[in-house]
Amino acid sequence: MGKPIIKEAQKSNPYGFENPLSYARKMDTEDPLKMFREKFYIPIINGKESIYFTGNSLGLQPKNAQEYILNDLEDWANYGVEGHFHGRNPWTKYHEKFPRLLSAILGAKEEEIVVMNELTINLHLMLTTFYRPTKERFKIICEEKAFPSDQYALESRVLLAGYDPAKTIIEVKPRPGEHAIRNEDIISTIEENGREVALVLFGGINYYSGQVFDMAAITKSAHEVGAFCGFDLAHAAGNVELNLHEWNVDFACWCSYKYLNSGPGSVAGAFIHQQHVTNKTLLRLAGWWGTNKETRFKMEKKFDPILTAEGWLVSNSSILNMSCHKASLDIIEEAGFKNILEKSKKLSTYLFFILHDINKNSSRKIIEIITPENENEHGCQVSILMPEKGKEIFDSLIENSVIVDWREPNVIRLAPVPLYNTFEDIYRFGEIIKKMPGLQ
Ligand SMILES: *Cc1c(COP(=O)(O)O)cnc(C)c1O
User: Fold this and answer.
1) Ligand 1 center from residue 228 Cα (angstroms)
2) CA of 150 to the centre of ligand 1 (A)
3) Is the peptide bond before 133 cis (omega within 30 degrees of 0)?
4) Which of 40, 77, 303, 412, by CA, is between 20 and 30 Å from 340?
5) Of 146, 250, 124, 275, nearest in space to 198 by CA
């Protein structure tokens, strides 16, 4: 018997899309999450409901958010300062609602999660604890083209510690001609720098390429050389499966306004592994909200850290941000995170198919996909390079009520989000590109 022959069409078309439009409509009709789109405000552009593919940048507003905020405003009106202890959601305990809601999303134990501040601030708080360089061990390994805020944060920490960023921050790059960073190159960089590595810090997903890193393997390798390992999960939280506890990740941070739909600049979060949270000797930037709750209001001297991730809390909570966060996480809980992930995989596979189809429809390759197509290496974001007429395409998409994210010089990031995007959104996007003058 010869080798089984896999037809080309089947390889690039694992779901067997014969008629892409009827397939899209069928998938939307059968979608167990289809009623969730109604729970969000879909922006109207040029008089039409938009095709919104920028949930990776700012998730849409859940319709219940206004009610949640109004409840907290009402409690403030009715109770004044007593709202800290009375009312529907006493404010001193508001942040305690989140670990339960986030634990499935992060693959973390409740005691490992705290919701507080904003993302880059949390990164600084984590670096204070987990980046303690010495003459022998001072290097940081990270990805090339990390999100700029992370680059600035790292560089400023290195300078504060009195080291030279050029000799301290080691960036792992894709190989020439490739867009994704190979896991083996990350591991070998960690091994080569060995005992000089103090910290390995990666995005869970690179914001630009959409590549998901092998967080388990990176953590293991960092630990083998005796370094701490942390992740910025801005693009991963709520988007892909995470198992932070099991992977033994030391710390992680994320924001809530991308895939967690909690509103612009809303409250962020941090994960600190169980093995660290009970360690009172870990140095940190302390504040009154992180001290023992029994004695907090005695207002005495001597910080006594809470023995959970809450021990890293600094200030009292930003309640109105938390109302939006709660509104959104309640929807995610109702939908079921597993169901969201399942739909996400189907949506992105369909998007890959439509993108290949656009190329097939043209006399040349007008789209280069830079996000890895392997199922374990991407979330719902797919980044594409469009070398021809980049900006014209972007402008014409907006005219057609399609909101995508444009990065100079010619990268478009597309993120069909399972809670509110449809298969038909993807189909229509493909048709709009195919009809653009000059791309056939
Ligand atoms: C979105 C994003 C940020 C934004 O930081 P803020 O502190 O929330 O303004 C930081 N890092 C990464 C990787 C991001 O994707």
Assistant:
1) 21
2) 7
3) no
4) 412
5) 250
Q: How far is the CA of 120 from the centre of ligand 1 (A)?
A: 6
Residues 98 and 43 in one domain: no
Q: Which of 318, 333, 348 is where one domain is finished?
A: 333
- The per-residue DSSP string of 166-214 comes to HHHEEEE-PPTT-SSPPHHHHHHHHHHHGGGEEEEEEESB-TTT-BBP-
Residue 402 belongs to some domain of the structure:
yes
Q: Is 157 in the same domain as 270?
A: yes
Which residues contact ligand 1 via a Cβ below 6 A? 118-120, 147, 149-150, 203, 207, 232, 234-235, 255
- Tokens linked to 200: 């390995």
Parent domain of 206: 67-333
Candidates 158, 129, 161, 126; CA nearest to 141 is: 158
81 and 167 part of one domain: yes
Kindly report the CATH number assigned to the domain that includes residue 381. Answer: 3.90.1150.10
Tell how far the Cα of 58 is from the centroid of ligand 1, in angstroms: 11
Residue nearest to atom 13 of ligand 1 (CA): 147
The count of structural domains within the chain is 2
Q: Are 105 and 56 found together in one domain?
A: no
Tokens of residue 424, six digits? 């038909």
From first to last of the 440 residues of the chain, give the pLDDT tens digit: 444 444 444 455 555 566 889 999 999 999 999 999 999 999 999 889 999 999 999 999 999 999 999 999 999 999 999 999 998 999 999 999 999 999 999 999 999 999 999 999 999 999 999 999 999 999 999 999 999 999 999 999 999 999 999 999 999 999 999 999 999 999 999 999 999 999 999 999 999 999 999 999 999 999 999 999 999 999 999 999 999 999 999 999 999 999 999 999 999 999 999 999 999 999 999 999 999 998 888 888 899 999 999 999 999 999 999 999 999 999 999 999 999 999 999 999 999 999 999 998 888 889 999 999 999 999 999 999 988 877 788 888 999 999 999 888 889 999 999 999 999 999 999 999 999 888 87
Evaluated on CA atoms 398, 404, 405, 409, the torsion sign reads negative
